[in-house]
Specification:
The protein contains 2 helices and no strands. With about 60 residues, it is mainly α. Helix 1 packs across helix 2 (about 50-64). It is elongated and about 55 Å long. It is about 90% helix and about 0% strand.
Length: about 60
């Protein structure tokens, strides 16, 4: 039973990481599209409400 619990915990962690990565990728695309089409105001609207952690992930994504 312990191995099954460990597997479930690891699977949950990987799923959460994949979800965060997909969300960051989607937000990155939205910010890039806003910058390309609407300029500074559009970018501000695209990042409004994002947490500091989200903005840091977005920054890392853009730096790649």
């Amino acid at each position: 039973m312990r191995n099954l619990d460990e597997f479930a915990a690891a699977l949950s962690q990987v799923t959460a990481q994949a979800t965060r990565a997909a969300t960051t990728s989607s937000r990155t695309r939205r910010v890039i599209d806003a910058a390309a089409s609407g300029g500074e105001d559009a970018v501000r609207r695209a990042v409004a409400g994002m947490s500091t952690a989200d903005l840091k992930r977005l920054k890392r994504q853009l730096e790649r």
